[in-house]
Amino acid sequence: MNLTAQARIEALGFAPADAAILAAHFEDAERQGRKGHGLARIDWLATLPDLDPAARPERTVAEDGYERWDGRGALGYLTMEQIVRAQLESPPVRTRVVVASDCFPTGHLGYWTRRLADAGLAAVLTCTSPPRLPHPDGGEPQIGTTPLSIAIPSSDGPPIVSDVSMAKATYGDVLAGRATEADLVPFGGTQAHKAFALGLGLELLVEALAGTDSYGAVLLVARPEADPVPERRRRASGARLPGDRGA
Amino acid sequence: MNLTAQARIEALGFAPADAAILAAHFEDAERQGRKGHGLARIDWLATLPDLDPAARPERTVAEDGYERWDGRGALGYLTMEQIVRAQLESPPVRTRVVVASDCFPTGHLGYWTRRLADAGLAAVLTCTSPPRLPHPDGGEPQIGTTPLSIAIPSSDGPPIVSDVSMAKATYGDVLAGRATEADLVPFGGTQAHKAFALGLGLELLVEALAGTDSYGAVLLVARPEADPVPERRRRASGARLPGDRGA
Question: pTM higher than 0.95 for the full model?
Fold first, then answer.
């Protein structure tokens, strides 16, 4: 299965190393049950009008507390991979904010935050994407599905990895046939204004920091001062916590 | 009304300048319709066993990209006020993460983020508080109501200020008699696992950065590179956007 996915991606023009990055992400999404971000995306890549398999992201600012990246036409998955590798290679002394423009699509965000948490770093990641969700009062789509993922490492086991979009169903769910366009609304039912406000706020944050000319991402990476997860697992008395399925 | 609130707070032992800070916050909450964080909190302060009106927060680390604060027994409102003033006085070159421990209660978070956005800074703020919300499967409370506020400035009018808790109703609503303990669950109905995951992730982030010995807060302050709000207001065609009531 690994070879097949990689071969299909290479057939789109990607170098083997890049195809391996993409295949690893799609296969992880399948394992996590996030099929909308999974192998179905390979066919979807082939439909992208601006697909440039040779494009390479660039880090344009590198400070201990701040990095700026530009996708330079590369798929967001590849930009995120380089960002994650750069953080693992050189973690911040305390905290670092990483701002990426021209960074789309970014896939399922828990894939990136979990890898940082597996290395002992706390991570928070959000991103922008095409407008899919209307205002709770109705009308045209105003915001993307706007995921937010937070991963916190643990001294005694896998990290806790939350990864939540603000949509009742994701566009990936629609692509995969498990939801309809009518489910592309903010989640929460009578309190959908909450998910809409969260999504709009996160989206504007990315736009304010990364610019409005492209889709982007904002990542916070931090070296923890404390180890709160073991106590939380104890308090949860065995209940499944976010990210446990993918651990 | 201002004098009355201030006088009532001074009667608890607070110096006039601190009482003015607290009164301004409570009165803003009333104006915003967030009565659970409003004047009813003055009587609540009197019930706090450890209330120390003379306590003063301290900034223990001050770097351009990172600050660390300790409430040192002060009310969280007063710690947040000093944090906000410090950011306004010396904004970051790009981004700054501010981590506060012993910082409770912090009130309605939009009060703090809006003031940063009114000065042209993007701001994201979350905080911890006593456990109120159970896991979606039921059981004892696991997480606080865990608000997240995001404020983004605008070149042509008031900022957009989202300020959302992960609870169906806040503890403030319960204190104010507008909700019951049964409403202290994650919002979202059949998708309450999303609000629970967001709240747990945010809470663990604060604990990982601020420590687990006290309630804390994490603030991201950023100098925007772009001005996305005017276009969003145009696209919203007059629909009310988060924070407009308080503008």
Answer: yes
- Measured between CA atoms, how close is A40 to chain B, in angstroms? 24
* Of the partner residues A150, A211, A212, the one whose CB lies closest to the CB of residue B201: A150
Q: What are the helix and strand counts (H, E) for chain A?
A: 8, 9
The pLDDT of residue B3: 62
Residue A219: strand pairing partners: A98, A125
What residues of chain A, 1 to 60, have a C-beta less than 8 Å from chain B?
A: none
Asked whether residue B93 carries a pLDDT value surpassing 70, the answer given is yes
Radius of gyration, alpha carbons of chain B = 18
CA distance B39 to B23: 8
**Would an 8 Å CB–CB cutoff place B242 in contact with chain A?**
yes
Q: Which structural domain range is residue B58 located in?
A: 54-246
pLDDT score of B191 more than 80:
yes
pLDDT of residue A162: 98
For residues A225 and A112, the answer to whether their CB atoms sit within 8 Å is no
Residue A129 has a pLDDT of: 96
CA–CA distance, B118 with B247 (Å, rounded to integer): 10
Which has the closest alpha carbon to A70: A84, A56, A50?
A56
Element (H, E) at B141: strand B138-143
Q: Which of the two residues, B245 and A232, has the higher pLDDT score?
A: A232
Q: How far apart (Å, rounded) are the C-alpha atoms in residues A124 and B205?
A: 8
How many CA within 13 A on the CB side of residue A114? 20
Task: Locate B89 and state its tokens.
Answer: 């006085």
The closest of A147, A116, A165, A86 to B205, measured between CA atoms, is A116
Mean pLDDT, residues B120-136: 97
CATH number at residue A115: 3.30.1370.60
Other beta carbons within 10 angstroms of residue B153's beta carbon come to 25
DSSP designation for A167 = B
Going by DSSP bridges, is the β-strand pair B133-135/B138-143 parallel, antiparallel, or unpaired?
A: antiparallel
Intervals of chain A under pLDDT 70: 1-3, 246-247
A200-216 pLDDT per residue, tens: 999 999 999 999 999 99
Tens digit of each residue's pLDDT (9 = 90 or more) over B3-23: 689 999 999 999 999 999 999
| Residue A233 forms part of a structural domain | yes
Q: Answer whether residue A212 is part of any domain.
A: yes
Provide the shortest C-alpha distance from residue A68 to chain B (in Å): 10
Structural domains in chain B (count): 1
Residue B148 lies in a domain: yes
In a domain, A118, yes or no: yes
Biggest alpha carbon–alpha carbon distance for chain A = 50
